[in-house]
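Thread: "does anyone have the structure for this chain?"

Original post by V.I.:
We have the sequence but no experimental structure in hand. Need at least a predicted one for the grant figures.
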Amino acid sequence: MEIAIPHDSTSQARSVEPDLFSLSIEQDRWLDWVGSTTRNDFFFNVLDNLQQLTGVPPRIRVGGKSQDVAYIDSSIQWASVSFADPTPSMPYPEALAMRVGTRFYSSARFLLEKTRVTHGLNFASTDDMRGFFHLAFIVSAFDSADIRKAGIVLDSIEIGNEPDAYGTRSIVRNASYDGSQYVAEWQTWAGNVIPIEQVYPDFKLKIWGGSLSRSSHDLTDWSPQALIQRGLLNSTAGQRISAISQHQYGGKACENDLQEMNSKSGIRDSLNAFKPDILASNQHSLEYVLGETNNCPYHGAVGISDTAAAALWALDYALYAWVDPRTPSFHYPLTNSIGYRSNMVQPIALKRSPDDGSDLPEALPPHVNAPYYAAVIGAEAIGSHGSTRIEELPVDDSRIAAYAFYEDDVLARVLLINSQPYFAPVVEGVFQTRPTIRVKLDTENSEFRIKRLSIPFTDSTSGLRWGNVTYESDDGRPSGVERFEQVNTEEGFDISATEVVLAFLSAK
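Reply from O.Q.:
Generated one for you, tokens below.
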């Protein structure tokens, strides 16, 4: 297979933000992630690994279902949370009720310096007085001296979580609740809450609207264009909306198999469906973000969301989401909480199995999951140049996705993802040959270096190595001697089934 690559950046290549791979964290477990009285060093380390590759910390979005059951309580310092009983299918359920105290939001001080944070705000209650004081709690925390000194920024507020499901998956609205009712409620509520800036004039908050769990992609049901048509932007508060947030999960793949989840065409089809929404948002000068996303809903699927296949999916999904010219702000915050099977990272010890909720004989220590390698590889491919450009390369093969990265409009790196599955033999001890594809890059270089993501099998949940380095360590830091291979351009190189290769082509 020969892949043609323009040596200079073309009009199809577009700037990619270094914090493309970011995290969305369920609010009810936020203190477990970041720490309350002391920093969670494991979480800090896995974030810092990415910052060392890009020069920029990952963005953090804190919210989700639990933000819509959260209320402030000035009588407590941190948080009081009531959870449903765990079940085999939902070992770590979200909060039924949550009270946040006076120091809850100040925990952001434990993040990396210059982190950009988005916090969710309870809209389900439509209690605008509580909303006003709740937002004041958040802004006041980020106005503190230590957070300001660290350059940690309250970048956005996401109002409500999946209001299109208020009438179907909860009892906060009746079953007939629709977009017109949402817009009317939003305008009244937001009009009374957003003026918090009169108290804190230094804060000019970005507001995320929508936060939809689905989209009809037209004017008939819940979609950005339908909400805009119904008047979402036609008020002083509505004019403050800076972005439309969409939540997206690949539920169909989770009902089938790993091969379908990693289907090159399936990934593209699932994202291309949102082009009408993106276009409608951009026509009104609104950014379009994936406020939360992952491969499977309901905290992920055992044997799918926690596997090497999910790492390949996350890498291709995030990069493809960015390369389309009409998606100027298609960020990729992978959804995480405590014990979710779809987590990139499990930041604290788990006493219950994330697979079935059973009690573990020994606590499972903090660790990274396979999808974390997607964030590491994506961060290294983007690099720390600050103005990297990315372009998808045309490859007429359903197994291979390819992306070119340019610095100063000069080709710097090429990333290849081979999503062909490779499983262990059914009969133990039986020899089998791992399929490979010989690749030649049509580049001006006479030789170059490559780095591989080595994976035992498609359904492996551990044992991955990126350039011979593992992140499956006690402290979340990389371990091992980094390994590159030298490649003669004329001879090319092999890429195996279920493997990622990053080629370094710049003269640096």
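V.I.: this helps a lot. The mean pLDDT is 92.
O.Q.: and The radius of gyration is 23 Å.
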